[in-house]
Design goal:
Length: about 190
């Protein structure tokens, strides 16, 4: 069973990254932090903060990246947009080096957010460094660039950073994500 907890701090609609959530709305602002959103033609920026744990596995059919290793699709909510988020590795498979590891592995991956209102993706570069205190795990530091987007997430841009632990003993990812996404909407 997926035991995940997510916390989001969001000023308006927009979103992304793995599992269950709750949201708090605050006054929306433009990308420069100024002005009334009504005068900005739906342009919205959202601060996102999330933490939790998610199972790793092979992405099921019907999802982008099907058959690839990644974080399995889970419920994900930002603002009032509910959808799913999953990730998949595009190159540089992580190596469970643990305490005997001699170096870090560079991984590229993509996160994909889908909802009836639209979706977007991130293109990521992550470093998976051996954890000498926990064999079979690695410390993850993931720089995520938000791009693409459809519907409410048209022209999405932003930067996120994720820190966490890949545990190859339990095949889970524990994460803590922070960042911003901006979108013009359709």
């Amino acid at each position: 069973m997926n035991t995940q907890h997510r916390r989001f701090i969001v000023p308006i609609i927009t979103g992304s990254l793995l599992v269950l959530g709750c949201a708090e709305a605050a006054a929306p602002s433009g990308p420069d932090g100024s002005g009334d959103m009504a005068s900005r033609a739906r342009l919205a920026c959202v601060e996102v903060a999330a933490s939790g744990s998610n199972p790793l596995g092979f992405i099921p059919a019907g999802f982008e990246g099907a058959g690839s290793l990644g974080g399995l699709p889970g419920a994900f909510t930002v603002g009032d947009v509910e959808g799913t988020l999953h990730s998949y590795i595009t190159s540089g498979m992580p190596v469970p080096t643990g305490a005997t590891g001699a170096g870090a592995t560079l991984i590229t991956l993509r996160h994909v957010f889908n909802s009836p209102e639209g979706g977007f993706h991130t293109d990521d570069t992550a470093v998976c460094a051996p954890n000498p205190d926990a064999p079979g795990t690695c410390q993850l530091s993931d720089q995520m660039t938000v791009g693409g987007g459809t519907g409410d997430f048209a022209n999405a841009t932003g930067k996120w950073h994720n820190r966490g632990v890949l545990d190859f003993n339990r095949f889970t990812l524990t994460y803590e994500l922070k960042g911003t996404i901006c979108a013009t909407g359709s």
